[in-house]
Design brief:
CATH superfamily of the largest domain: Vaccinia Virus protein VP39
Number of helices: 12
Bound molecules: S-adenosylmethionine
Distance between the termini: 36 Å
Order of helices and strands: EHEEHEHEHEHEEHHEHEHEHEHEHEEE
Number of strands: 16
CATH architecture of the largest domain: 3-Layer(aba) Sandwich
Strand content: 25-35%
Radius of gyration: 23 Å
Shape: elongated
Structural class: alpha/beta
Helix content: 25-40%
CATH topology of the largest domain: Rossmann fold
Length: 363
Amino acid sequence: MRFIFILGQASKLSLAEIQSVLPQASVIDSSDAYAVIETDIADCQIFLNRLGGTIKIAKIINQPIAATTIAEQLSVNALGKVIFGISFYETKPTKIGMEVKRLLKEKKFSARLVTSREPQLSSVIVTKEKVREFLIIKNKYLAATCAVQDFADFSHRDYGRPTRDTKSGTLPPKLARMMVNLAAAKSNATILDPFCGSGTILQEALLLGFKKVIGTDISQKAVGDTKENIDWLISQYQLTPSRLTIEQLDVARLSTQLRSIDVIVTEPYLGPGLHGTETSQQIGKIIGELTSLYEISIEQFSTVLTKSGTVVMVVPEFRSNQQTIDVESLFTKVGMTVVSHRDLVYGRHDQYVWRRIVVARKK
Ligand SMILES: C[S@@+](CC[C@H](N)C(=O)[O-])C[C@H]1O[C@@H](n2cnc3c(N)ncnc32)[C@H](O)[C@@H]1O
């Protein structure tokens, strides 16, 4: 069956996540907004709940993009008032919704067309107003939405948890989830975040079903924050980890304490907050310091990882500067290979530092 996945703002990353979770599926078509994927999905909503980077999933309707098709679909199993809406992607919105409403009235259905100022209905509107949504994409595809992202649950985990370290910066849970998915690990794998901060990555790993989870950080406060957040998560979502260790540890000493780690998913220290006025010399200095930290870290990663272990790591991209941190060389030096493309980036236009996600495997 063919599905349309509506991708989040970091579309390349969102698509890479889908391909990692569905390695057998074929991508038929894609753009910055969507991907058309041939696959079998038993339950759209359960599947979408696993992903961090997809906003909606819709089933493609192999019929003409016409008001009659949509009205026909809506009249099947319609109970009471039909609440529906049309979202337009990469095409100019039309008045097709009004035409559908007229056709439904002709068939004696009571109907409400939900509209928005934007060409697309948001996931919030679709969920809250229980809208049966149809997507018209590029005048090429017509699809019926079968799942929308649980924005409220992501936000609960982000803002509802006991502690958030706004100083060191916390990773958005959606990005943490995408990173864990990019590791493509089995749920019996042992997963480590050696710069765990307030525990966002560990949270998403536990929710994705990983039972052996380790978090370490040089800061005692971060360790305390992570413990508090993970205790909260375990009780909120009734999780049952079989191994959960959260300890203070400098990344340079990882191999003195740990071995047999299957997967490392981490966001290391990314440098001081920038104001946008830094000279290229100042940024060069930050890059030099971070390169030293990452070199030590990657050496330690390769020692504690099992054979064919995986690292998924955030690396900063300085928008005002051409210089980057050459993590590819650092991984090569320890016999690991970077397998991700350089375009897996996450950031907003007003941010001076974007996050690049690097996936590397031990040979
Ligand atoms: C960007 S924060 C990680 C935030 C985390 N991803 C989250 O969402 O909460 C980086 C973390 O690296 C830790 N750190 C810095 N240097 C370290 C080192 N040498 N060894 C271990 N942790 C270190 C800091 O204490 C900080 O908590």
